[in-house]
Amino acid sequence: MSDYTVSRISPTDKRAVRQMDALLEKEGIERDKNLDYSIGLFDENYDLVATGSCFANTLRCMAVSSEHQGEGLMNQVISNLIEYQYSRGNTSLFLYTKCNTARFFGDLGFYEIARVEGKVVFMENRRTGFADYLKRLQKETAANTADAAPASRGTDQIAKIGAVIMNANPFTLGHRYLLEQAAAAVDLLHVFVVSEDASLVPFSVRKQLVAEGSADLPNVICHETGPYMISNATFPSYFLKDSDTVIRSHAKLDIQVFLRIAQALSLTDRFVGEEPFSQVTGIYNQVMAEELAAAGLGCHIIPRKTDEEGAISASDVRCLIQDGNFEALKKKVPACTFQYFTSKAAEPVIQKIRAAAEVRHY
C-alpha cells in the first residue's frame, strides 16, 4: 500500500477544493455547503485519493476514490476527523451517509438512529445515545405528568398526546397562540425547544421564555430537542438556502427521528404553525404532513396569529429589536419576552441582533 499525506484542505486552496468536489461528485456525493474543516489524503503527486469533512459535531462528505478502495483509507479519514473533533471538545459525534455505506460506518463504531430508504442514514458514535435521550424524555414526562395532566384523568387514561417543536427565536405572541391552540386540543402537550445554538437568541434564553410563557397552561411539558431534532446534525438545510430536493430529504430524516420519539411518548398528534414567510419551513411542513399521515399520526397546521400588521413572526420581532422599537415590540410578544429584552441580562443578545447583517430567515 502506498503512503499518503494527510493535509487539511483550506477553502482558499482552489486546486484541492476542485479535487475534493470532483472526487465527491464521482462517488455520488454533493459537497455540503456547511463545512468548517476538511482533510484530504494525497498521493506522491498531490492528487486527492480520499477526503472527509466536519461541521460542528458532525462528520460529512467522506469519500475514497474507487481506484483506491480496499486500502483502508476511509479508516484513516475517520480517525483523523474524530481526533480533530475530540481536540475541539466534541465527543458526541454524528454523521449521515448513504444507505449502502451505513454498515461500513457501523464497523467503525457508529450506530444508526434513523434512515430515509434509498437516501440517507443518520448515525452517532454513542451506542445508547438516542435511547438514553428517549429515556430522559420519559422520565421528564413521568415527573411532570401529575401536575401537567388534567385532574380528571390519570396518566393511563390520556387519549390525545400532542407535540410542538419550536425554535422561538424569540418567543412571540404567535408562539404563545400556537401553544394555546395545541394545548386545548389534547390531554397532554410536549413542547420541544430546539437546543442548537444556531440562532441569534441563545438556547438558554429561548427555553426560559417558552417555559415562562407557557407556565399557566397546565397540560404542557417542556423538553430540549438535544442534537436529534431539527439540528445541523439531522437537518443541515434548516437554516440555509438549499434546493427543494435537499430540504425534502433532510425533512424526511428529521421526521423519521420524530416518529421514534412519538412512539416513546405515545404521541398522537403534532401541531405546527402555518408558514407564509419561510420557504424551507413551508416545504418541511408539507413533507411532515405526508409522513405523519402515513404513520397514523394527526398533523395540524395552525393559522398564524395576526395583528393589524398581519401575521406575527419572530423575524419581525427581531427586526424591531434590531431597530430598538420596543414600543412596537411590546405588542407582539408575551410579557416574559418583553421583560427579558428590557432587562440588563438581554444587553449582549440585543447587541448581537443589532450587529447581525440579516435577522430574517429564508
TrEMBL record:
One of its GO terms (molecular function) is [citrate (pro-3S)-lyase] ligase activity. It catalyses: holo-[citrate lyase ACP] + acetate + ATP = acetyl-[citrate lyase ACP] + AMP + diphosphate. Its EC number is 6.2.1.22. Keywords: ATP-binding, Ligase, Nucleotide-binding. Pfam families: Citrate_ly_lig (PF08218). The keyword Amino-acid biosynthesis does not apply. InterPro entries: Acyl_CoA_acyltransferase (IPR016181), Citrate_lyase_ligase (IPR005216), Citrate_lyase_ligase_C (IPR013166), Cyt_trans-like (IPR004821), GNAT_dom (IPR000182), Rossmann-like_a/b/a_fold (IPR014729). The keyword Nucleotide-binding applies. It comes from the Bacteria. Residues 1-128 form the N-acetyltransferase domain. NCBIfam families: cit_ly_ligase (TIGR00124), cyt_tran_rel (TIGR00125). Acetylation of prosthetic group (2-(5''-phosphoribosyl)-3'-dephosphocoenzyme-A) of the gamma subunit of citrate lyase. This is [Citrate [pro-3S]-lyase] ligase. It comes from Ventrimonas faecis. The lineage of its organism: Bacteria, Bacillati, Bacillota, Clostridia, Lachnospirales.
